[in-house]
Amino acid sequence: MTPLLEVKNLTRVFGGLTAVGDLTFHVDSGEIVGLIGPNGAGKTTCFNLLAGALRPTSGSVFFKGKDVTGRKSHQMCKLGLTRTFQVVQPFPDITALENVMIGAFVRHGSTGAAEAKAREVLDVVGIGHKADVLGRDLTLMELKRLEIGKGLATEPDLLLLDEVAAGLTPVEIDDILALVRRLNSEGMTFLVVEHVMKVIMNLSHRIVVLNFGSQIAEGTPAEISKNPAVLDAYLGEEEYVA
Amino acid sequence: MTFSLSVILQAIASGLMIGGVFALISIGLTLIWGVMKIINFAHGEFLMIGLYLTYFLVTQFGMDPYLTILITTPALFFIGIGIFQVSIKPILKHPQMNQIMLTLGISLILQNLALVLFKADVLSVRTRYTGINYTVGGVVVTLTELIAFFGSIIATLALYYILKTTDIGRWIRAAAQNPTAAILQGVDVRFTYLLAFGMGSACLGIAASLLLPFYYTSPTVGLFLGLIAFVVVVLGGMGNFLGAFVGGLIIGLTESLGAAIMPGSLSRVLTFGIFVLFLLFRPQGILSKRQS
Amino acid sequence: MRRYREFLIPVVVFGLAGFLPLFLKTYYVHIGILILIWAYLATSWNILGGYAGQHSLGHGLYMGIGAYASTYLALNFGLTPWVGMFVGMAFAAAAGWFVGYATFRYGLKGAYFALVTIALAEAAVYVVSNWKAMGGAAGLEVKYLGTNPFMMQFDGKLPYFYIILVMTLLAVLTAQWLNRRRFGYRLIAVRENEEAAEAMGVNTLGTKINANVLSAVMTAAGGTFFAQYFTYVGPRVVFGEMVSVQILLFAIIGGLGTVWGPLVGAVILVPVAEIARAELGTQFQGAHLLLYGGVLVFTMLFMPKGIVGLVKSVRSRIWKTPDDSVSAPAPEGGAS
Q1: C-chain residues within 8 Å CB-CB of B265?
Q2: Torsion angles phi and psi, residue B106, rounded to 5
Q3: How many domains does chain A have?
Q4: Cα–Cα distance between C100 and C61 in angstroms, integer?
């Protein structure tokens, strides 16, 4: 079976600096794959490359068996690959419902259908009662949920989550993790970038570790936590291995 | 039409002269843009105030036009500060387009206030400098243009010196580069903005006194000169001091050479064409600056 | 029928407005026409500026294209302005596409977009001023031959009033349509957060270009009407900076990105400005523009969301209606 997402020798150079170099990994349908690495390891650049916000310098990306290298963000989204943002990116002047509707319009042409889909998604992420609140008036926790909801509304096959746990309390993190697990059990595939190690270890089926833009390890959470190369890379970053 | 060498040389000379004044006008705009990221659409109208002020000082009080610099410069400084305090300061944190619309409103007010007060007449002055020319190799240069050119260069250098060596200059540069860091280092950013806005406006006082003896004033004079200042600032790179100076000379030359070889006012199309091309392909300006 | 209810209010409001001239003196009908011209142009601008958040400061470009196209074709080929209007709209569509593509393709936004649009409109002033066939700086005069509906010429003011009334109604209906349709939501998404919109499947480049084209096409039709009503077009009169500024003025003061904002802005401001012009114009030329400037400054300082925005926020603060902006989902299913 071909993997849902296949990344081959992906490279991105900024000026003289290689942010992502020769990165190869894959994500199978139904998986939750974690992408970790110390600060500046190239995780966000990798996300931007996969989601089409940046063009790779070389290498290729295959999605559902199709070469999608260099496609733009909105095209990737239509193909079924949607990303969320580390720093939440709501549309501040419209309601939560309308925020999510923008995503629902990818698969639904009519306003009524998009709105029905958006309400459904708001309930799934647990902010159905906030449907009529403006984006600017939501709390951080609600915004994090909205961020996932905006992604879900596009009905992706693969959802890229960028640091959903950042800035949340442990209880709130558990809520979000439960949500991701539930969506996964319903068949959605996830690629997750996360700084909080506890989250990634708990959540992922498989983990890809980056350092200096390249993959240094891959395996199950249990394998990764014992991998000397990984421990080495994180040395001096103790505070994050909480 | 014949493009004789003397016509071209004459155009180059005149273009450089007026370009020096364009540069001084634009440096005020680029200073304000660079420091507080505000595009002052009323910049041309501030210059218009300076031109009218010079006109009245010369015609009503018989002042020497170049002596009026002593009055127009502080006057424009304080007018700038006043307008900043009442209208721009309250919306410093608002979206950029709101700030643009606000300054657009100010320009409408000033322009039409001038129309109400002074009528639409085009006014110019005759002074004892008028009509004195120098001919060098067939190229005629008027004394008033020469004074304006060198006056603009001196004013530019003086402003440059202030920015580079004084405390005020250091504050302004710090606030322009990184407002947050500037605050942490104890710079009063609001006060610095105020000073920068005042200084940017004061440049127009000097420019007005230098310009009027060979130019004119009317309620709409700022419309064109304001647009020229935008062109120059974009050409030089927004917020780039040296770039604005080079840009001023280039646009002076473009206007003047264009007028010499193109019929009617088509040279303006050239000027705005350059402007659009730069905005599209080289928005960082002619002297490429580090990308921030 | 339920899905067309949103269009009922504009139709009723404009239908009632249609009775007004029967009770008004000619001069007031003239003011009514002026209100509608600016309301129409501001509503057209609002699609790009208010909904999509791209503040064009050079909409005079499209207005001028519309005005010059129909006038030139009528003068030289006897073409009726009714058709000339559509020719102008086609040219404006091309210009709008080109401007949109050139600017948005290179990622120009905010102040940079505003500056390019000013420069293009200003360049157009000088191109037309030096274009002999277009009458040069003197402009073109629409030959007036008495009432001739075929040539969009009338002796009285009433027919002009009804033409621009219908045009403005259509513009408001377009805005209302956008308000609850996918394209409209996408415009707003682009305005609110381009990066997020792109990630959510919105082709932001295409959306912005389309908004520019739609806005340009509508503006051009206003240009044709303007030329027919005033029977004159000149480079500064239709392409000039003052035209571009006035077009966006009413939208901003009335309320950016709202259906009724541009109309409300024009209804409130134009009569005051016209009376100022009529009463003070001979002594104090520019009195009305002075007023516009003052109101613009006041708006930016004290009610940046405009009159309609202010009313909305006051209303929601008093009533706290949850279904304020989003009505119950309209069942679509079988109808579509």
Answers
A1: 126, 129-130, 137
A2: -60, -40
A3: 2
A4: 13
Are residues A120 and A74 located together in one domain of the fold? no
User: Which residues of chain C make contact with A113, given a CB cutoff of 8 A?
Assistant: 332
- Token match 């509906």: residue? C149
DSSP of A114-154: HHHHHHHHHHHTT-GGGTTSBGGGS-HHHHHHHHHHHHHHT
Backbone φ, ψ for residue B123 (5° rounding): -115, 140
Cβ proximity of B159 and B34 under 8 Å: no
Say yes or no: ipTM exceeds 0.85: yes
Find where tokens 């249609």 sit. Answer: C18
Say whether A97 and C326 touch across the interface (CB within 8 A).
yes
CB–CB of A74 and C198 under 8 A? yes
Secondary structure (3-state) at C127: helix
Whether residues A168 and A237 fall in one domain: yes
Domains and CATH numbers, chain C: 2-252 (1.10.3470)
CB B208 within 8 A of CB B88: no
In one letter, which amino acid is B254? T
What domains are defined for chain B?
5-281 (1.10.3470)
Question: What single-letter DSSP state applies at residue C148?
Answer: B
DSSP code for C330: P
Residue with tokens 């390891």: A41
Task: Verify whether the Cβ–Cβ distance A74 to C193 is below 8 Å.
Answer: no
| pTM metric for this prediction | 0.91
Token code pair at residue C250: 């009413």
Q: How many residues does chain A have?
A: 242
CB C118 within 8 A of CB C54: no
Calpha distance C175→C169 (Å, rounded): 10
- Confirm if B89 and B38 have CB atoms less than 8 A apart: no
Same structural domain, A191 and A172: yes
Chain centroid offset of residue B228 CA:
8
The residues that bridge with A34 in the sheet, in sequence order, are A192, A207
Helices (H), chain C: 8-17, 26-46, 60-77, 81-105, 110-129, 158-179, 182-192, 194-199, 204-230, 241-254, 261-280, 287-302, 306-319
Chain C: residues touching B (Cβ < 8 Å) = 55, 57, 102-103, 106, 108, 110-112, 114-116, 118-120, 122-123, 125-127, 129-130, 136-137, 241, 245, 252, 284-287, 289-290, 292-297, 299-301, 304
Range of the domain at A25: 1-80+157-242
- Phi/psi for A136 (5° steps) reads -70, -20
Tens-of-pLDDT digits for all 242 residues of chain A?
A: 789 999 999 999 988 888 888 899 999 999 999 998 887 778 889 999 999 999 999 999 999 999 999 999 999 999 999 999 988 899 999 999 999 999 999 999 999 999 999 999 999 999 999 999 999 999 988 999 999 999 999 999 999 999 888 888 888 888 888 999 999 999 899 999 987 788 888 899 999 998 888 888 888 988 888 888 888 777 655 544 43
A60 & A44 share domain: yes
Out of A132, A155, A178, a domain closes at A155
Structure token pair of residue A35? 């992408």
